Amino acid sequence: MKKEFPFYIKAPVIMLGLVIAVFILSVLRDILVPLAFATLIAILLNPLSVRLERKLPKILSIIISMIIALLVVAGIAYFLSSQIAHFFDNVDAMKQKFTELLYTSQAWLEKTFGIGTKKQVQMIKEAANNSKAVIGQTLSGALGVLSVVFLIPVYTFLIMLYKTLILNFFYEVFSAENQQKVGEILAETKAAIQSYIVGLLIETGIVAVMNSCALLILGVPNAILIGVIGAILNLLPYIGGIIAIALPVLMATVSFDGYTTQLLIIAAYALIQFIDNNLLVPKIVSSKVQINALVSIVIVLMGAAVWGVPGMFLSIPFIAVLKIIFDRIDELKPWGKLLGDNIPTEHLGQLKRLRRGKNQLAKNT
Which of 107, 213, 241, 276 lies at a C-alpha separation of 20 to 30 Å from 30? Predict the structure, then answer.
């Protein structure tokens, strides 16, 4: 007979397991982050590689697939670098405008809150010292960045090369009666990740075009660069959209007098966000796994706390895979429902009370 442990025993064990898992993820960050990105890239490139394998050897098919992906990334990087070069064309005028805004802000803070200029300078210096510490940590991890650049292609190639070996491991590690569930989970995970990433790339391209067109119409300097950066930030659910609005507003503030342009930017970006959330995401992204907004925000923040910015991008595919697994295991189905976007109209307590009421009424009659 299967022994059931009470909740007060299971809960601490689950919490301890989560703490250990988070600790391991944090300690092995430099190894697991490039491995996670490589896994996503390998899943994305798998259909192209399989199609090429019909006419070419497997290794050559993988190499060609990776070269195509690298050429696309290099093209995007060249485009962004050319736009960044134009960013410094009007840097002197922006510096002058920023200095004027700084003096105006200092006077307003002193008049409104009574914070003197010296105190403001001291606060800015303290913030700058904290920023230097963060920058120092980032620079000290420069070797880690270089290793990621080299590790991701190597990991991707090896994962695609040993795909069959890895899949056979997942089948063989579970008992025969569970192999059907394992196959369903693997197939659904691959399909969900592929549809999610491809849809996300298409959505990002459309949002970048809409952002850039809106900023060009409003005459914001470096409109294309800011529009593309805003579209990339939009990949972060709910949080990135807010940050993306701040960039063009800041650029307009240091470039124009008054606040008309800033208000028009906010209105344009609000319209773009509405189109994105109500038309592009449901129609284009069309992920097979829908995660609710509360879980999305929490998991993005947790990903940032454990793995930084890469964790924010990896958190949604990670939680989507977990939901697929939870939905296939009877004991974990409540967790899958908690992560999902289907909102029940009534909770179980209300249903039980209604059933008791109906039973009582039936007995009385």
Answer: 241
* CA–CA gap between residue 334 and residue 8 (Å, rounded): 18
* Backbone angles phi and psi of 329, in degrees to 5: -115, 125
Token pair of 284 as six digits: 């284009």
Q: What is the pLDDT along the chain (365 residues), one digit of tens a residue?
A: 455 666 667 777 778 888 888 888 888 887 888 888 898 889 889 888 989 988 889 899 999 999 999 998 888 888 877 777 666 656 666 666 666 666 666 666 666 666 666 665 666 666 555 544 444 444 444 445 566 678 888 999 999 999 889 888 888 877 677 777 778 778 877 877 777 788 888 888 898 999 999 989 988 888 888 888 888 888 776 667 777 888 888 788 777 777 788 889 889 888 988 888 777 776 666 555 677 778 877 888 888 888 877 887 888 788 888 887 788 777 778 888 888 777 776 665 555 565 665 566 566 66
CA-CA distance, 61 to 54, in Å (whole number)? Answer: 9
Tokens of 16: 């301890």
- Cα four-point dihedral sign 269, 275, 278, 284: negative
Which residues are CB-neighbours of 167 under 8 A, at least 6 positions away?
Answer: 186
For residue 278, give both structure tokens: 């109500």
- Contact between 36 and 314 under an 8 Å Cβ cutoff? The reply is yes
- Kindly give the interhelix angle for 179-218 and 29-53, rounded to the nearest 10 degrees: 100
Q: Which stretch of DSSP H or E encloses residue 68?
A: helix 58-87
Which residues have a Cβ under 8 Å from the Cβ of 339 and sit 6 or more positions away? Answer: 291, 292, 295, 319, 322, 323, 326
Contacts of 32 (CB under 8 A, 6+ apart): 25, 307
Q: Could you tell me how many residues make up the chain?
A: 365
